[in-house]
């Protein structure tokens, strides 16, 4: 079967005209496929790689730096020195570049920039990335939070069937006119952002062209069916379903590549160099992104030169070492963490918890709301073996969901330990020992082709069944990437395996994401989790974990922030909120003829404009 799959892929490559060496075409082979191409909903690195190369933001990270920026659609990077950061850090001015063309031939205007940001804020899809801009600009975490703050009523009381009740409609129009529209304004050739308060990481958020800061063509977007730009219609475009977005499978940007095809059946994306790109036509004329789940097939494609780079399985890295035609780039710094998470309130619609009851044929949805259930899982993962055998040493232990290299990381915090005896003791305390007396049955899922997640799932299955023979049954399911993401977002997975790559290099991007009730992972962890972290705690001085996180993110004193983050991490560790497995050290495998690649942990994949091929 392995070789049949490879034969089919090779026939496909031959059909599109790819040979062992073609300096104009680049083939990258991964294990995941895009989830969506809507720039304001995409929140995964696979979708992000496509968006990064098709769209552009106002500024970009300079090379491998995380602190220096360079202009893109803006002609200057705002600073206090050049006078484009004003009002003590509350006003940012971006002069917009002239003569830039969209892929459809339209010319970029400052109004396109204003529209793009406002559309994203008003769309604000559940589980999407727009919380960053809501917090940075307005000091709230979502559109819903702003609605409640401005109207004085929760969203559930303001809307019915997607439409505002008559008594709130004018208030929502005024919210747009008085709050949202004035925050992003066009003045001549400039776009001006007016923040509610100074926010240090603002430029790092603007620089990350994964989607949320990219720029759309306003006129084309409206014709396609996105927000029409009017103050009294915006709620009709709020939080629409992924597949219903007009941008779900379409992309029209100003970037170096234009989208030619997204073949979801054959899991293939084709990009073509944009001849009118303002920085010059790309050297690579065509980029093909393929999804191939099986390692053996990817390996053969790289060895034969039918792929220019592939997703690496570290467990099998030795198989391609020593080949003079293949370059291994290792010890690449990352700002990323991998954790085993818990849904404290699994969706009752989940097919991954069996019967959903205490009957030996399922798992109750709230099983992991018991601290001892979570504690038991912390003991059944052989962390050192994962790093040694699966990652081949390319990973380090972390005490909490915060990577080394960011403010607040503390290597003296305790690490979880592998101990099956303690795992059984904890399980015996969970729910008065029902798991051991009655039994549990549930399913662990991973995304197809991700051998790391597969091995972690297999380890959990093996040791859970070992400490409770005949009582605990764990099935394992492989899901394609979009299905895995959807199941996580709907809180259907009792124990999802998360990997988080930094959106911006600040501890808030991890701490808020993992531990706050409004964080990206909160919906995946369920209502019981949200209640837990938003409830005041004696051990936190009468404050909730949410409150501590808010204090840390809003403080301008690095020492104060560091102390708060250490306190937050200690609480998360003591309560087994999630189980951090490792911080990866990245490894890249590419053909030796690939030139121009450079590392940047903020980038979601390749920067194809900088890549070229030379023998």
UniProtKB/TrEMBL annotation:
InterPro entries: Peptide/Ni-bd, SBP_5, SBP_5_dom. SUPFAM superfamilies: Periplasmic binding protein-like II (SSF53850). Coiled coil: none annotated. CDD domains: PBP2_NikA_DppA_OppA_like_7. Residues 69-520 form the Solute-binding protein family domain. It comes from the Bacteria. GO terms for molecular function: peptide transmembrane transporter activity. GO terms for cellular component: ATP-binding cassette (ABC) transporter complex; periplasmic space. This is ABC-type dipeptide transport system, periplasmic component. The lineage of its organism: Bacteria, Thermotogati, Thermotogota, Thermotogae, Thermotogales. PANTHER family: ABC TRANSPORTER, PERIPLASMIC OLIGO-PEPTIDE BINDING PROTEIN, PUTATIVE-RELATED, PERIPLASMIC BINDING COMPONENT OF ABC TRANSPORTER. One of its GO terms (biological process) is peptide transport.
